[in-house]
Every structure is written in structure tokens, then in C-alpha cells.
Amino acid sequence: SKRKAPDSNNPNADFCDFLTELANYEKNVNRQMHKYNVYRKAASVLSKHPTRITSGKEARKLDGIGDKIGKRLMIYTTGQLQKLVKIPAAARKLVVEEGIKSIEELKNHTDKLNHHQKIGLRHHADFETRIPRAEVTVIDQVLQKELKSLDDGYIGMICGSYRRGKESSGDVDMLLTHPTFTSQSGKKPTLLKAVVKQLEKTGFVTDTISFGDSKFMGVCKLPDAEDGTKYLYRRLDLRIIPHDQYFCGTLYFTGSDLFNKDMRGKALEEGFTLNEYTIRPMGSTGIPGEPLPVESEEDIFDYIGMKFKKPSERNM
Ligand code: DCP
Ligand code: MG
Ligand code: MN
């Protein structure tokens, strides 16, 4: 991963990249969502600071940057932490507790890792490599074809950073629905199971990290292309949402996460509660009412008096 040198737009750009990297590490490897949010917030605050930060003390004066992050930033400038950031999963702990110093060494100690961490270690180099947009497009084609082969009713859309138009993605996020699955019909665990089973059968899905009734997290890989191009292993997230909740689902799953937070805040100001399933009016009692009818993402923006933003305008 490349870090930009400080530039005139953001004199702390390299610090911001570093914090974003730590944030993603906490999210993707350690699943520490709280730490992830803390780092994201710090990066965002720092990106708006007009001058180059030169000391931990100075950093700590900023809103959202505490002792720990201030210290980390200063250690980062001395280059010590740059090495540690590259090491995945339980590695940091092992580095400290067992004296294991490299990925290669760690590969001989997999007994200390759980299933999820083993997958992370096995594919750690691949997972660190961002997915070019063109490859996500090919993945989309594969997924659409397999959905169709199962049942014409499936609707699948890749959301996340890809739908926001990003030139590369950290993972692939597909949202699924099916007309026979509604909030009234109740859970249909077989619908997602059938998809994953099919994708495993074709060899496209190679690993499962976690698998619930409505959410699959795993690993996929495209078959080698005719011209010999070999693809990397990629993180794949699948979610199935009831048909009548599809647009709240696509809005949520398209993000960005910060955009979602902002929009949920605006909804609350306007007296609505918005989540990945529904938008509901908040009564004067503070108890949410019945879900409002939603026929499109535009409807959701309309309810809360917000000008519609295309996915590419949601990169916050
Ligand atoms: N999401 C959210 N809040 C979270 C996590 C996720 O609102 N804490 C939503 C918004 C994200 C979407 O889910 O855009 C997909 O999550 P990802 O972690 O895959 O994020 P992106 O796809 O946006 O970025 P990346 O390219 O890193 O995958
Ligand atoms: Mg994503
Ligand atoms: Mn994802």
C-alpha cells in the first residue's frame, strides 16, 4: 500500500493514510469495529487540519485524537510501526508473546490461530491487494450467471465501494433478494444457502469465514482467464434482504459507512429512524412507527428532505 507524501492540500496526508490503514486492519483482520471507528474519525479530523502535525502533543489537541493515536503517529514518523502494520491477525499478539517475527515464521505456528485467522494468513498478501474495478465487473458476471442458473427470481447487485464508482475495492459486497422472500414471509435461510452451495460447487467460493441465515462472509477466486491471467483470492460478502426492504438494504450496503452515519443523523433530525431494513417515523413519544413504503432509494431521500445523491456522490 502506497502512502502519499505530504502535499499542499493535506499536509498530513501520509498520517491520514496510515490511520486509515490501521482502521482497515482493525476492521478486516481484528474485527474491532470500535477501534476501526476511532481511527477513521481521527483520520477524518486530521485531514481537515491545515498544517503539518509535528508532535504527539500537537496531535492530541485535535478532537478525536487521544494519547494513544498521538503516540502512534509519532512512532509512525520514526518508521517503527510501519513494519508491524503489515502483519495480520493474531500475529501482533504472537509477535509480542511468542517472539514470532515474520509471516513465514507464523505459518509454522498455525495451531495458535483460529479458522478465521488461518484464512487471513493463507491469503494475507491477496487480501492486502485491492481489487481493480474491472475484476469486480467480471466477478459480477460470474455471480449473475450462477444466480440465474439457480432460479430466475434472484436479484443480485454489487454494492459497497464498487457501486460508488471506486476504481478499486477492498472486497466484493453483493446484496441479494428474491420475490418470495419478504418481511412477512419470514426468514428463508435456504435462499442464501443455495447460492453459496452453487458457488462452492463451481469452485468460485473457496472458503467460508462466517455464515448466518442472511449473511455470508468468505473468499472467492475467479478461474484463470483464457489469456493466462491468474486472479487473486478475494473477500466476498453476500447478504440477503427481504424484497420489500431491498432499497433500504441497497442504500445501507452501498455506503460509505460515514455517509450512512451522516444520513441516519439527518433522518433523526427530521423525525425518522433509518436502518438497513426500514425507514420509520418517530412519534412524539420516541417510539418508531410502522415502516414507510419504499419503492426506490429516491423515496428514502425524499422522506427526510434530502436531495438525492447518486452512489458516486456518497463517497464520504
Ligand atoms: N457499512 C456500514 N457500517 C459499517 C460497515 C459497513 O454502513 N460499520 C456499509 C457501508 C459500506 C458497506 O456496508 O459501504 C460495505 O462495507 P465494506 O466494509 O465492504 O466497505 P466498502 O465496500 O464501502 O469499502 P471497501 O472497498 O473497503 O470494501
Ligand atoms: Mg466493500
Ligand atoms: Mn464488505
Automatic annotation (TrEMBL):
The keyword Cytoplasm applies. It holds the Pfam family DNA_pol_B_thumb. Residues 10-315 form the DNA-directed DNA polymerase X domain. It catalyses: DNA(n) + a 2'-deoxyribonucleoside 5'-triphosphate = DNA(n+1) + diphosphate. It comes from the Eukaryota. Its main location: nucleus. It is found in: Nucleus. InterPro entries: DNA-dir_DNA_pol_X, DNA_pol-X_BS, DNA_pol_B_palm_palm, DNA_pol_lambd_fingers_domain, DNA_pol_lamdba_lyase_dom_sf, DNA_Pol_thumb_sf, DNA_pol_X, DNA_pol_X_beta-like. Its cofactor is Mg(2+). SMART domains: POLXc. Its EC number is 2.7.7.7. Keywords: Cytoplasm, DNA damage, DNA repair, DNA synthesis, DNA-binding, DNA-directed DNA polymerase, Magnesium, Metal-binding, Nucleotidyltransferase, Nucleus, Transferase. Transmembrane segments: none annotated. PANTHER family: DNA POLYMERASE BETA (PTHR11276:SF42), DNA POLYMERASE TYPE-X FAMILY MEMBER (PTHR11276). DNA polymerase that functions in several pathways of DNA repair. Involved in base excision repair (BER) responsible for repair of lesions that give rise to abasic (AP) sites in DNA. Also contributes to DNA double-strand break repair by non-homologous end joining and homologous recombination. Has both template-dependent and template-independent (terminal transferase) DNA polymerase activities. Has also a 5'-deoxyribose-5-phosphate lyase (dRP lyase) activity. Belongs to the DNA polymerase type-X family. This is DNA polymerase. It comes from Saccoglossus kowalevskii (Acorn worm).
